[in-house]
Amino acid sequence: MFNIHDEKRDRFMLDKSFARKGYDWWWHSFTGINSKTGEEKSFFIEFFVINPKYGKKYPVFGQTQGKRNDKPSYVMIKAGAWGEDHAELNRFYGVKKVIIKPKTPFIIKAGNCFLSEKETCGIIKISKEGAARHPEWMSDAGEMEWKLNIEKQIAYNVGYGAGGIMRNLQAFDMYWHAEGMKTQYSGWVKYNGTVYNVVPNKCYGYADKNWGRDFTSPWLWLSSDKLYSRVRNQKLDNSVFDIGGGRPRVFGIALDGKLLGGLFLEGKEYDYNFSKIWTGARQRFSSWETEDKVYWKVWLENRKSLTQINVICPKKEMILVNYVAPDGSKKHDRLWNGGTGKALIKVYEKKREGLQLVDLIEAENVGCEYGEYAGS
């Protein structure tokens, strides 16, 4: 089972060695409806903390600021939108100027930006002059303001890999927990002057968390809860899929081609978690880009089922999302990130007579990400 809620995995994780070399982030993505035209638009919000041990009253940008002896240390609020008017907006605070309640339930308050398990609000304004003058911000120009309630409905819990023992050992370079791989948001977003209403059952929301000492390469993420069954000829209101991973490192050992993934199909779970070896989970994946699109192909199997997922997303609606690693380097220079992907999902169950098609699913508003370190 993976639909196991555990808010302890959402708490602030940057203690022990991770406080000196580590990052922690909370990611939210969803859609809003244009209050004037009714047009749907996809948004994202992220609260990101890096190397709090070295925190000051002002953000320390580290090597991206030209000071190679300084490790980056700050709280970054990242927000923006996908689509043809896409933007990534980054606002930074010094760690000592931010209120962080580390235990369950966690709270982060940075200026007028706030996040908890149940709500978030904030505002980011980046001028064209500011974005051009400060490349260390890694930001586009634009404005976004939001106020949202959060209800996390279906979880993807990876199990013991992010459990208490493995967290205490800080064994993995990168951890993942999706407390709300299906999340209902309600409230509003104001993006570059336009108001969007965020409505439950139409928001197609997602919430997860990553933390650790380094990122992964390759880096893959795919998820959506806007699903339609061709077999049932109906919208799937109680379904969602979520896949993440690439090349995890545990105790310094790289595990190539490993994914964590689950499909929740109208109450039934299909789990493809590489760490649950007793399930016989196996995965294959590839991603490539053409001049105008990015593609993903994922093959997931366990002893009882097989799921194939093909995803496509137009580049003109995506961003090349930016992160600095805890050592101050910017390892991912081409990390494609989108929220308007489309997918076709084939789900089979293994029977004595062979594979039996369970469902053929169309997915929209697919959150999608892929990148590899430069030169890899």
Can you give a write-up of this model?
The protein is mainly β and 376 residues long. It has a single domain (7-371), classed as AttH-like fold, CATH 2.40.370.10. The protein is 4% helix and 55% strand. The chain is built from three helices and 26 strands. Strands 1, 2, 3, 4, 5, 6, 7, 8, 9, 10, 11 and 12 form a twelve-stranded antiparallel beta sheet that branches. Strands 13, 14, 15, 16, 19, 20, 21, 22, 23, 24, 25 and 26 form a twelve-stranded antiparallel beta sheet that branches. The longest helix is centred in the middle third of the chain and has 6 residues, at 128-133. The mean pLDDT is 95.
Counted by DSSP, the helix tally is 3
List the helices and strands in order.
HEEEEEEEEHEHEEEEEEEEEEEEEEEEE
Helix content: under 10%
- According to CATH, the homologous superfamily is AttH-like domain
Find the count of extended strands (DSSP E, 2+ residues): 26
Question: How far apart are the termini?
Answer: 35 Å
Instruction: List the domain count as a whole number.
Output: 1
In terms of DSSP E residues, the strand content is over 45%
Write down the Rg.
20 Å
Could you say which structural class the secondary elements and strand pairing correspond to? mainly beta
Rounded mean pLDDT score: 95
**What overall form do the CA principal axes indicate?**
globular
Q: Please outline the major beta sheet.
A: 12 strands, antiparallel
CATH topology: AttH-like fold
This entry's quaternary arrangement is single chain
List segments where confidence is low: pLDDT < 50 over at least 5 consecutive residues: none
